Amino acid sequence: MSTSSALSPSLHPLIAGATSAFITTTLYQPLDFLKTQIQEPKNGISKRSIGLITKHTIQQYSAFRLWRGLTPSLLRAVPGSALYFHLLNSVKEKIPKAQQTLFVNGICGAVARGAADLLVFPFTLIKVRLESSRFTTMNMISIILHIYSVHGLQGFYTGLLPTLARDLPFSGIYYMSYRKLKDTFSNDKNSPSNTNWLTSQASISVTAGLIASFITQPADVIKTYRQVAPTDYRNVHMTIKFILQTYGLIGFASGFLIRAVRRTLVAATAWTLYESFLR
């Protein structure tokens, strides 16, 4: 008997989600590192480019420095994605196929992501601090101790509101778009055969990821400001006001290109791996 058949079918989405998250997080961590450094408050320092940050990081440290923050990223992504896929699959199983409308799919994706975010959120904050240029001399343990000593346990949930404002619509819009595109392909008599299923799957995932990334970009910038410098940007309103006064609306586009690339690659890889594991 194979390992897959020996496991309860209800565990398949959980295991597939965790496995795909481990692979995608490890592969694309450098993109997350660069995004955080581009988005973080500059304090008057001239805007840095992806090329300059990459060059400086490699020269000052090494190429492996681009994977700084990988440990909390894995601690966040692996259980978070496992729970997300498990909840999403469980909720969808309880809803008749005929009732799985575009809106319902969006709600399912948002609810599953929200539950996962609440569970692993502290690791999101630790990850961002490690990636930031403001905490280059601190390791994961010292960052944890620093957060607790300054803000207490509630400090580990700094930036939760903008994170939920980013992740809930992102996951809802992504899954809604993903299912719509997938159903469209499936209903097409000329739909792809098994030989080019991978290309079709990746294309659907990338398209859905780009749509969701564009809509949720402002919340991602606000989240980074709040998590990197919570004493300077004490609430969401203050953060929005500062960005608008300093950079204008374009300030909310900071890091969009690299975020869109990363989010679409992660989503495409994760969902493609996930669907592959369950096939």
H/E series: HHHHHHHHHH
Low-confidence stretches: none
Number of helices: 10
Please give the CATH class: Mainly Alpha
Specify the overall morphology. globular
Count of distinct strands: 0
Helix content: over 70%
Count of all domains: 1
CATH-wise, what's the superfamily? Mitochondrial carrier domain
Mean pLDDT: 87
**Secondary-structure arrangement, i.e. CATH architecture:** Alpha/alpha barrel
Largest sheet: none
Question: What does this protein look like?
Answer:
The structure is a single chain. The chain has 279 residues and is mainly α. 73% of the residues lie in helices and 0% in strands. It has a single domain, classed as Mitochondrial carrier domain (Mitochondrial carrier fold, Alpha/alpha barrel). The model has no long low-confidence stretch (mean pLDDT 87). Helix 2 runs antiparallel to helix 10 and helix 4 runs antiparallel to helix 5. This is Solute carrier family 25 member 38 homolog. It is found in: Membrane. Keywords: Membrane, Repeat, Transmembrane, Transport.
Question: How would you summarize this macromolecular structure in one to three sentences?
Answer:
The protein is an all-alpha fold. The chain has one domain (10-278): Mitochondrial carrier fold (Alpha/alpha barrel).
